[in-house]
């Protein structure tokens, strides 16, 4: 970031937090004043029936706070995304309204970003100096387990934290589409932000009702699945491509046997029809499932391209098999089977790369 004094946007989603907003807003304003920070507090309220938005509007004359009431969409994560859209700060700080996140740690979160040491800072309960107050061991075990499941996505020790500061410009460069409430994990993974963790003491809410329940846990697992597919998109596509190829082998065999045994085709002629049926089957599944090609794409052109790639792949399979049999001594049993398998692997890799970068380039929809 440049050396001008940054403007800070504090984004707080709310639903039935009337007691807590009356406390957290003055506390944040005091932090701004004490540390000479310029900023705004953005409350995104999901039409709370307890009068949360009314209290916030009453306080807007005394504190730098504004309230955005949503009447349609619901949910913590989408509320924060709304906050990102309306924020004007250089740095956005995301935190809960229930006083579980220590407002006095806001300067510690934004400082490393201002200094250029990272793009985002996350308040962590699980690094040295961090802790949870008043949590039963079962809740701690669930939280630790959830963090362990996210280890393949991020180096964060506290991947389920909801307290984060991040540069607003990098948030605007990605599409956020979380399931459930773990917007911090979604944001860190999709922005690929340089991130550090700052120790915090997490305190369970004193007022109001917790939103943590079985549905939240289920949504978290679905969210993790989506993020793993996002981060390891090529690997995910390759696995799908191989599964489609395996199903195509079944189609090829069924068509071949049916034409020879029932219609008395010459096996060599039947093999041609079997190959075309398998290619057509594979194209359909890859187009709709593996690469998720959007509507409106010329299917005939992509099908012909896919057919050509598969024919080249077939030639590669036979070529690799021939070379291994002729020059690597794989003519005899069982080595010719290994030669065939290596040929299939080489052809599969070629077919996948050709499909991804030639047949369906720039058409993939990652969901």
3D architecture notes:
This protein is an alpha/beta fold and 367 residues long. It has two domains: 7-231, Spore Coat Polysaccharide Biosynthesis Protein SpsA, Chain A, CATH 3.90.550.10; 234-356. The chain is 53% helix and 12% strand. The protein is built from twelve helices and nine strands. It has helices at 18-34, 52-59, 76-86, 106-114, 137-149, 168-171, 183-191, 214-231, 233-261, 267-290, 299-327, 335-359, and strands at 7-14, 38-45, 65-69, 91-94, 120-124, 131-133, 164-167, 195-199, 201-203. The strands form two sheets. It has a seven-stranded mixed beta sheet. Helix 1 (18-34) links the parallel strand 1 and strand 2. Helix 11 packs antiparallel against helix 12 (335-359). The protein is elongated, with a radius of gyration of 28 Å. It starts with 6 loop residues before the first strand and ends in an 8-residue tail after the last helix. The mean pLDDT is 88.
